[in-house]
Amino acid sequence: ATLCFQAFLQMCNLPIRVICRANAEYMSPSGKLPFIHVGNQVVSELGPIVQFVKAKGHSLSDGLDEVQKAEMKAYMELVNNMLLTAELYLQWCDDVTVEEITHPRYGSPYPWPLNRILSYQKQWEVRRKMKAIGWAGKTLEQVLEDVDQCCHALSQRLGTQPYFFNKQPTELDALVFGHLFTILTTQLITDELSEKVKNYSNLTAFCRRIEQQYFEGHERDSSAMAARSSKRSLLR
Amino acid sequence: MAAPMELSCWGGDWGLPSLHPESLTVMAYAKFSGAPLTVNTINKSWRTPKGDLPVLVSEDIVISQPAKILNFLRKQKYNADYDLSAKQGADTLAYIALLEEKLLPALLHTFWIEAENYCRVTKPWFASRIAFPLSLYLPGKMSREALNRIMLTKGGPPLYSLTEVEAQIYRDAKECLNLLSKRLGTSQFFFGDTPTTLDAFVFGFLAPIYKVCFPRVHLQEHLKQLPNLCRFCDDILTSYFRLTVSGHSPAGQDTADANLQKLTQLVNKESNLIEKMDDNLRKSPQHPPRKLTTLKLAAGGEESSPMSRLSP
User: Which residues pair with B62 in a beta bridge?
Assistant: First the structure.
């Protein structure tokens, strides 16, 4: 999710500095990461940040007409609905991944036993949410199928264009880039999730293009990226 | 392809074939794609519902969620999306996600959580269709599940209390309705002249908001300000679902219409019985007003209750 914001802010040509902190969740006004700190204002979550940036005079979707704006919002919901939930599922509901990767990573800033307690608490919260929306009964294969369907839809929508709404990047491009890049570069137990995305060559090309255009040459970003554990670079 | 398919779902009222959005979606899709479904609405004489309606049973296969049921129908060659391009198929998925994220919470809230609506309309209606003693338990359970879903998906910080969450979900729902209206524009259906999966989903979500007569109706009022969406719902109801007693069924699905006819006859018989009971109850001094409303609403689906609106 951090990447979505970075991409979005880079696309708006706004300079940013990325800082990693262990208590970041508590500093954020809504408890959700990431958040931006501008002057004496703190804003979190994609929606409010987009509006905040818009109020300051920068907007990526001004060139769209009403129907296109409706489409963009619909696709953003699709990404949130499918990809984000699938990522959460994989991180917290797939037992193998939870044991080997998520628990150690989530609990790493804290001493024992706090690390175990906090990660179990988070896991319980996420599982409760999955149950409420009906994802608890899904197997890993079904989740991967859903991700595949979502990627298929995104791939169809992107087609051969450079961005989702032709020549200019919009919030949707930032969001999709953030999620797909995370999926493609985070190391998990199995590579099935990233394989699903790699099946769609226009999506990987899209990610590469945005990475090259907006992230290359920003050295400070690479140190932030290195701070995220188990990352490997996007395939060249 | 010839295997008989039975759909069990919640019944309808106020001019709708079903009150339940998911049941309505599946019924609409079946009509659009020409699938011969036998529709069994839940009433007291049926086996108690598990709460996971709608359910499609075909030979030995039991399928329970709308998306899976639609997939099954497509595999049986009842495909309403045949003429769509790949991009339109992708748009369908995106808009369905929009509906589920933005509109569904407000719909659930209007039906199951808003206190006046729940106590005066939803609970009595559903309780009257479930056999005792499950009728005491199941509506409460559905209400708790709805609340759970809303609070877990929308109720994260900084929205801690239910009132703040309510304000947010209604704002989202109104925005969603506006977006749908802009997307529909002046065309008859979302992708041209023939209805597709997206039309089924939109109809399933919009029609209950549009038609059901609740005491608290600000979402319905907002919807009525978007005439193209209202026209969309009315068109589908008149062209694909003919619910008047004397109406002739449109081409196809004779069994479904025969069932509907039987249901209407049953309802008429019940309404005669209910009128008799009504007279008896009027003489009783302790009769709570809530029951009167239920009886009147259940009588043939006509809006005779003083608090309900006339249907457009």
Answer: B57
Show residues of chain A in contact with B149, CB under 8 Å: 132-133
Q: What is the ipTM of this complex?
A: 0.74
Token pair for residue B154?
């929308």
**CATH number (domain holding residue B98):** 1.20.1050.130
What is the spatial distance between Cα B138 and Cα A51, in angstroms, rounded to a whole number? 42
Q: Which range of residues forms the domain containing residue B166? A: 5-241
CB B102 within 8 A of CB A78: no
Domain count, chain A: 1
The predicted pLDDT at position A182 comes to 80
Supply the CATH number for residue A185's domain: 1.20.1050.10
Which residues of chain A neighbour B102 with C-beta distances below 8 Å? Answer: 77
Domain for residue B186, yes or no? yes
**Inside any domain, residue B50:** yes
| pLDDT one-digit tens code per residue, B148-179 | 888 877 766 555 677 888 888 888 899 889 88
Residue B272 in domain: no
Identify the closest residue of chain B to A31 by CA–CA distance. B157
Spatial separation of the C-alpha atoms in residues B294 and B305, rounded to whole Å:
9
Q: Which pLDDT band holds residue A223 (cuts at 50, 70, 90)?
A: very low
Residue to mutate among A66, A139, A145, with most B CBs inside 10 A, is A66
The pLDDT, as a whole number, for residue B248 is: 34
- Predicted confidence at residue B256, as pLDDT, reads 57
Q: What is the mean pLDDT of residues A20-32?
A: 59
Residue A132 domain boundaries? 63-217
Domain assignment of residue B165, yes or no: yes
Q: What is the mean pLDDT of residues A223-234?
A: 37
Distance CA B198, CA B190 (A): 7
Q: What percentage of residues in chain A have a pLDDT greater than 70?
A: 67
Q: Chain A: give the shortest CA distance to residue B240, in Å.
A: 27
B180 in contact with chain A, both atoms CB, cutoff 8 A: yes
Measured between CA atoms, the residue of chain B closest to residue A29 is B158
The closest of A105, A198, A92, A187 to A140, measured between CA atoms, is: A92
User: Sign (positive/negative) of CA torsion B108, B215, B270, B274?
Assistant: positive
Q: How many domains, in total, are found in chain B? A: 1
Task: Pull the structure tokens for residue B201.
Answer: 């989903």
**Is residue A187 situated within a structural domain?**
yes
In a domain, A85, yes or no: yes
Cβ neighbours of B148 in A, within 8 Å: 132
Q: Do B152 and A133 touch (CB under 8 A)?
A: yes
pTM of the model: 0.73
